[in-house]
Write a structure and sequence with these properties.
single chain, alpha+beta, three-stranded antiparallel beta sheet, 5 helices, elongated
């Protein structure tokens, strides 16, 4: 075997080792996906598949897709998505009542109490209501 043959063989071996390493990394990544680790329930929901971990859609984590695989990928995406900062429908009415109570008790345009104005502004922001 001459030096060209030795170099070709060494390059082929190095390439094979790199291919095996990449395969192992891909397998390790797949095994660390949230849908693999937590095994959400998978079922049909109308014309789509749903992957759900938890009791229901409101309190659990879910993903939807046209195939089971797409639903699991969407579940992984949902797992890593932050919860919206807007109020849930359950507490919107409570926040609205609190805002009305603040307006009634303290007035909507009282500029003397900064804390009260900030509280009203935060409630308005949470409710997506324009400021006065």
């Amino acid at each position: 075997m001459n030096s060209n043959d030795s170099n070709t063989a060494a390059n082929a071996i190095c390439h094979s080792v790199l291919m095996v390493q990449e395969s192992w990394q891909a397998a390790a990544y797949d095994q660390s996906r949230p849908s693999v680790l937590f095994k959400p329930k998978l079922y049909r929901d109308g014309d789509q598949w749903c992957a759900l971990l938890g009791d229901d859609l409101q309190s659990g984590v879910c993903g939807f897709g046209e195939s089971p695989a797409k639903a699991m990928w969407d579940f992984d995406k949902s797992w890593n998505t932050d919860v919206a900062t807007h109020p849930t429908p359950d507490n919107t009415e409570l926040l609205r009542q609190a805002l009305e109570a603040l307006h009634y008790c303290f007035g909507a345009t009282d500029h003397e109490d900064k804390s009260r104005r900030e509280t009203i502004a935060k409630l308005k922001e949470a409710l997506n209501v324009e400021s006065d």
